[in-house]
Structure formats: C-alpha cells, structure tokens
Design a protein that fits this description.
The complex is a heterodimer of chains A (118) and B (330). Chain A is mostly helical and 118 residues long. Helices cover 88% and strands 0% of the residues of chain A. The chains are: A mainly alpha (118), B mainly alpha (330).
Chain lengths: 118, 330
C-alpha cells in the first residue's frame, strides 16, 4: 500500500506542477495564442497526472470507474474547448505575434515610402 | 484544512464579485459570473452540500452563462456610461449593510451544535426519514417528500419564468424556409472538430442526465439538475448545428406542451393522493405500503420536475436564440 501511496503522491505533485506552470504561462506569455497554448497543453497533462494519482488512492470500485469517465470526458472536451477558442479568435481576425509584427513593419515601410514620395 | 480551503475560496469569490462591479466589458462580466458560480459550487462541496453544489454548477455556471451570452448578443457587449452621481445609492447600500450586520449580532454563534436551526426539524429529518421515506439520499427525501409543497412551488415558478420570457420575447417558431438560417451557420461550417466532438458527446450528456434523474434517490442529483443537463445537450446541438436543426429535433411547440406536462404530472400526484383519501402530495396513500408509496411519489414528481425544467430551459434558450437570428438577418 505504501508504494501505491508514494507513486500516487508523486503523480499528484507533478500534476500540480504542470497545472501551476500553465497558470504562470497564462499570465506571462505575450499574446493570446501563446497563452491558450500554455494553458491547454499543461491542462491536459495535469488532468491525466492528477486523475491517475487519485485512481491509485481508490480501492478499485465504483469510484475508479467514475474517475475514468471524468478523465475520458476531460480528455475530449478540454482540447476541444481550447481549439474552439483559438479558432474563433482566428476567425475574428486576431493575428499571431509574428504576423502582427510583420504587419507593423509593412505599415512602417509604407509610411516611409509615402514620406519619400512627398 | 477545510477552513483554509474555505477562506481561499471565499476570498476568490470576493475578488470575482469586485471585478464584476468594476468591469465595463459585459462579455468578461458574464464569464466572471460563471467563475463565481463555480466557486460557490466548490464552497458547497466543502460544506458537504453536494446536491446544492451540483445545482449551482449546472444552473449557475452552465445554463445561465449561455442565457446571459445570448442576451448580450441582443444588447451589445459594453456597459453604458452612468452619468448620475452614485452618492445616494452608496449611502443606501451602506445603511442596509450596517443594518444587516447589526442584525447578525443577535444570531447564535456560527456552527454551534445547539443552534435553533439544528434543533428545529433537522433531527427529525435525520432520525425519522429512513423509516418514513426510506431513501438513502436525505436531501431528496426532504426536497421531494417533506418539502414537496415548496418544490411544487419552485416548479411552478420555473414554469411561470418560461411564460414570462415567451410573452416578452415572443415564442420561437420553426421556419419553413431555412435559407437565411444557413447564412448564420456558415461561420460554424468550418468547425469540423467541434462538430465531431459534439456528435460524440451529446448522447453521453443525455445519458448522464438520465442517470442523474433516476439516481437522485440514492446519490446527489434529481429533477432540477437532470433537466438542466439534458437542456444543455440540446443547446450544444443548437449552437454547433444551427437553431433550425435543433428545432427540427424538438420543436418549440412541443417544448411548451412538455413544460405544462411536467408541472401537471407533479400536481396530478397530489390530486391522486387526495382522491386516495390523503392530503395533497401525501405519498403514503399511493400504494398499499407507505414506503413503496413514498418511492413512487418521489420518482414521479422528480420526473415531473425534470421534464418541466428541461422544457423551460430549452424554450427560453430558443426564444433568445430566435431573437438573435432575427436581429442579425435584418
């Protein structure tokens, strides 16, 4: 039993670490798409690790099955939600960091050309 | 440990509430409301009130967020600038708050075992309900049997909410020519991932709703939660595959019938027990054995609640979404 406890706490700890790093990424990353990326990827791995850790704490009964269902549900819905979020941002015309930099560059060049023409 | 978790959750709740007051972007406010409900659901779980938490998560964080978002689609997403001075409202709020805090000074100490609330009817529910009602889930036996009258009132309130919304917004009607609807859906045509996942997950949501409905006697759950979850499945369908498709599956007219059917099912249990010689909603008279009668009564009224809540939530969503579609076409 002791081995299971140790393994489960290691899984929970790494799960918490990934969840926390996702939260940090959400705050520290520069633009929308990188933030969604940080949150969604760490979220998936954190969910897997935490539920795996909890699975080892159950006595392999109905609760185990319920946790498995929750895991399956989250594995399907959470990436889909991130995908829908990023896609609708793209659909709404939001540019990535590189693209918006390029656009600014082009605008600057145009301005300079206009000034040179005058 | 539980106190620590409570404190963290409560402070997060307060921060969310303050953000809601000061933000002008209503879209973000709606999202914060969802977070607020989720946090209160977590607090309820921490208080071991799982049934309430379940309702809060399903209704507060789920359905009401969707309904508020569809309201935003009608009204626009920024708050109007308020030019009037806010001194008088502030004074009123401070006076009311002070009066309320003054009122709590007379209250018995928080959480003490000999508080009146723990002495009044709670011991009877806890000690007698296994013999009188015989359900493993005490909350359901209080909600559906001891307080059956209140729950009937709640169901009627939900029903009259639908009547109110439909009379304000106008009932949604299924259109014969669905050409203009197709224009609006065009944005979602590209969402292949969303469509596939929705197809995969909608049946599972409905299955879960049925589980919650019929497992409410034994675990957390019941008619209110099940109705909301089932409505959520159809709302997801309407969002991903367009409103007119959803209306082909469940027509608005049918939903109105269904809502009345749910309320009538509940009321008819009461009338039937009166005919059998008991009081209104006296389940003991439903069968020869009072315990079996209680089981039947609770099962049927929970079904009535579930049907009514499902139909009301979905038809309110239809009414809003229909308005949104109409306003975008014009």
């Amino acid at each position: 039993m002791l081995v299971l406890d140790i393994v489960s706490s290691i899984l929970l700890m790494t799960g918490i670490f990934f969840g926390f790093s996702g939260a940090v990424g959400l705050f520290r990353f520069p633009d929308f798409f990188t933030r969604v990326h940080a949150a969604s990827i760490t979220d998936s791995i954190a969910v897997i690790l935490i539920i795996a850790g909890l699975l080892l704490q159950t006595s392999f009964d109905l609760n185990t099955a319920k946790l498995m269902f929750i895991l399956m549900f989250l594995m399907i819905t959470s990436p889909t939600a991130s995908h829908a979020l990023a896609k609708s941002a793209r659909h709404g015309g939001l540019l990535t960091l590189g693209e918006s930099k390029q656009q600014q560059k082009q605008q600057k060049e145009q301005m300079q050309q206009q000034e040179a023409g005058q | 440990m539980a106190v620590l978790i409570d404190l963290v959750l409560l402070s997060m709740l307060a921060i969310t509430a303050l953000r809601v007051i000061f933000l002008k972007d209503l879209f973000a406010v709606v999202m914060l409301f969802g977070i607020y409900s989720l946090l209160s659901a977590l607090i309820f779980v921490n208080l071991d009130a799982v049934d309430v938490a379940f309702t809060e998560a399903a209704v507060g964080a789920g359905i009401s967020t969707v309904l508020m978002l569809s309201t935003l689609a009608l009204t626009g997403r920024t708050e109007k600038e308020n030019k009037r001075s806010s001194v008088l409202p502030l004074l009123v709020v401070i006076a009311t708050g002070a009066a309320l805090i003054y009122g709590t000074l007379d209250m018995p100490p928080f959480g003490a075992a000999d508080n009146p609330i723990h002495q009044h009817v709670a011991p009877r529910y806890i000690e007698e309900s296994p013999k009188e009602v015989g359900l493993p889930n005490l909350v359901t036996s209080v909600l559906a049997s001891y307080r059956g009258f209140d729950t009937f009132g709640e169901t009627v309130v939900v029903f009259s909410a639908m009547v109110g919304v439909l009379s304000l917004l106008g009932a949604a009607r299924r259109r014969e020519n669905s050409d203009d609807a197709a224009v609006i859906v065009a944005g979602f045509k590209g969402h292949k991932v969303l469509r596939v996942v929705a197809k995969l997950i909608i049946p599972l949501i409905i299955l879960f709703a049925l589980y919650v409905q019929f497992h409410g006697d034994f675990g957390p759950g019941g008619g209110f939660q099940a109705g909301v979850i089932a409505a959520a499945a159809f709302i997801l369908y309407a969002l991903v595959f367009s409103l007119s498709h959803a209306m082909q599956v469940v027509s608005p007219k049918f939903l109105q019938l269904l809502a009345s059917l749910g309320v009538l099912l509940y009321a008819s249990v009461g009338i039937y027990s009166m005919l059998k010689g008991g009081h209104f909603l006296d389940y003991n008279k439903l069968a020869a054995d009072p315990l079996v009668g209680q089981h039947f009564g609770i099962l049927i009224i929970e079904l009535g609640v579930g049907i009514a809540v499902f139909a009301v939530m979905l038809s309110i969503f239809y009414a809003f979404a229909h308005q949104v579609e109409r306003s975008t076409i014009k």
